[in-house]
Fold this protein.
Amino acid sequence: MNIAIILAGGTGSRMGADKPKQFIEVLGKPIIQYTLEAFQRHPEVDVIEVVCIASHVEYMRELVNGAGVSKAKYICEGGPTFQESVMRGIESLKGRASDDDVVLIHYGASPFTSETVISDAIRVCREKGNASPAAPMLYLTARRSDCEKTTEWLDRDLVMRLNTPQALRYGYAVDLYERATRDGWLDRVDPHTVSLMLAMGEPVYFSLDESANIKITTPSDLRLFEGWILAGKQHAEGGAE
């Protein structure tokens, strides 16, 4: 099976809203619903698990039922940190997933992901054991010396932007987090599964990414997403004519 683990456990403090950002409505639907629908539509995704902030678990149950997200078989409560939420999602699948199943770890507030991105993450993971959507750095890049200036540029040809959905064989994911817990890595890395892998010396294999595949983090991202949805509707209506 291919199982999408959708992370909806964050508070979204940088958004400055009165609710977690994944639940902010855009044109009548919460952001996470758009994300769930992308995986619901994908022909290779068999099951969706939502790892949800405790305050919204019942809301999430109502949402997936009302929106017809039939692949969302499992909803579990997230933890206080990113890594603990991922661990809870993985542990919740014990007895439900086999070692060779692929899990796709993805942010609930990343609704731009496409069928192409999801498909290639699955393909590379099946071949290599893991995958992260990756894209070359297109802009001039510098190392920050402080908050005001830089004195050193970085060769952008040596830099890749890593993204989600991060795909791993389920058995590998279980082993990775067991070792990370035992060896004390979880509090020492940035909040990403791939950053944990790299810190532990694990190879990360690149799959295709797209520039539009961004995570909604700030109010400007929210406006961009609203414009993207409106543009898609206008294009569809124009095509229907």
